[in-house]
Amino acid sequence: MLKKNSIIKLINNCGLLMFGSVMVFSGLLLQIGYHHGHHGEIEAIRLVLGLNYFNWSDIHIISIILVSIGMVFHILWHWQWFKIVLQKRKLLIKNQQAILLTIIFLLVAATGYISWSIKLNGGSEIIRKDFIEIHDKITWILFVYLILHVKKRFKWYFSALGKLRRKRNSIDIKNGLHILEIERK
Ligand code: HEM
Ligand code: HEM
């Protein structure tokens, strides 16, 4: 039976897909459109696809916050999975792609959030730039692993939607039978 939890899981996974795409798109655009070839000042007012550097930076931050919230639930829902996989060598080797994705995601999140907190606290701009430089490089690896991860699980969205539809149909049939019974009485 499809539990209420499954609907929330579907909403969360759809949110991850949507905001994850915005996160990747805005991040790569900032890198290619503003960072590449600019070792000094960034041309912040130059428009790329109609928006300037600050707009794209805001879009990246908003999508990151939403993805981070979704990821907390995504990891918690698979907590048991992590516990089992990390205990058995065979399972660890079999699921190395998801484990590597987890490590890379945590590294990308750490470098991004540390850099952001340096900016918010008025810390050293040189240290901040070092973190952004690392962030820039490892996000490419994250990008590849995210594509592989989602591609492998794309069917899940259709089967989850199918289950939801079947559940709704069976509720409609049950309600119909109930009304017929009441009318007969
Ligand atoms: C493929 C995915 C990603 C790409 C291509 C990417 C790229 C970038 C780039 C280019 C910047 C610099 C923006 C600037 O110049 O202000 C940035 C900033 C940032 N990123 Fe990402 N990023 C990605 C994923 C993530 C993830 C998963 C997180 C955290 C969960 C994250 C957190 C941040 C934060 C907090 C900042 C702001 C840093 C600051 O303003 O000092 N990013 N990202
Ligand atoms: C941001 C984009 C992401 C999307 C759209 C996404 C989507 C999905 C989907 C549809 C599933 C299968 C259904 C389920 O069990 O919930 C899944 C499973 C899983 N995801 Fe993600 N995911 C994303 C990112 C991540 C990241 C960054 C990690 C690691 C920290 C991760 C770890 C896992 C694990 C451990 C599983 C269960 C095991 C497995 O299917 O191999 N996911 N994900």
Overview of this structure, please?
- Helix 1 packs across helix 6 (125-152) and helix 1 runs antiparallel to helix 7 (154-184).
- This protein has three domains: 1-77; 78-152; 157-185.
- By secondary structure, the chain is mainly α.
- The radius of gyration is 22 Å and the shape is elongated.
- Helices cover 84% and strands 0% of the residues.
- The model has no long low-confidence stretch (mean pLDDT 92).
- The longest helix has 32 residues, at 4-35.
- The two termini are 30 Å apart.
- It contains seven helices and no strands.
- The site of one protoporphyrin IX containing FE has 20 residues, from helix 1, helix 2, helix 5 and helix 6.
Helix coverage percent of residues? over 70%
Question: What oligomeric state do these chains adopt?
Answer: single chain
Structural class: mainly alpha
Number of strands: 0
Number of domains: 3
Determine the N-to-C terminus distance.
Answer: 30 Å
- Principal-axes geometry comes out as elongated
**Poorly predicted runs:** none
Q: Cofactors and ligands present? A: protoporphyrin IX containing FE
Give the radius of gyration: 22 Å
The number of distinct helices, counting runs of at least 4 residues, comes to 7
Could you report the average pLDDT, rounded to the nearest whole number? 92
Biggest sheet features: none
Strand content: under 5%
Attribute tags:
0% strand, 7 helices, 185 residues, mainly alpha, binds protoporphyrin IX containing FE, 3 domains, single chain, 84% helix, elongated
